[in-house]
Amino acid sequence: MTFSVLEGLKKFNIEHNFVVKNIYEYYAKWIREGRLKVSSDWNRDLKIKFTVQDPCQIVRKSFGDPIAEDLRYVVKAVVGEENFVDMQPNRSNNYCCGGGEAFCSQGSKSNALLTGS
Question: Rounded to two decimals, what is the model's pTM?
Answer without folding.
Answer: 0.81
